[in-house]
Structure formats: C-alpha cells, structure tokens
Amino acid sequence: MPQWLCNQLMSAFQKKDRRQIRLLNDCWFYYRVKPEKSKENAGITP
C-alpha cells in the first residue's frame, strides 16, 4: 500500500470520517485488482 494512502487512511480514521474511509478503501481495492486483471490478459493474444 502506498505511503500516501496509509497517511490518508490514518487521518480519516482519527477524524472518524466514514465517507473518506469508504472512498479510500474503494480506491485501494480498485487499484489492487486492476493490475491483476491486466496480467491475466497479457498472455492472451487476439
């Protein structure tokens, strides 16, 4: 996890900002899953 994201999450948890926590969580899962999908598609040639 990037350091900037860790800092943002810690700040959101300290402020108890649920909207920000959900947004950052969604961003983390989106970017974490995105490279895995491109790896799977890299071996497939049309």
Automatic annotation (TrEMBL):
Pfam families the record matches: spore_CmpA
Top-level taxonomic group: Bacteria
Protein name listed in UniProt: Cortex morphogenetic protein CmpA
Annotated organism of origin: Cohnella lupini
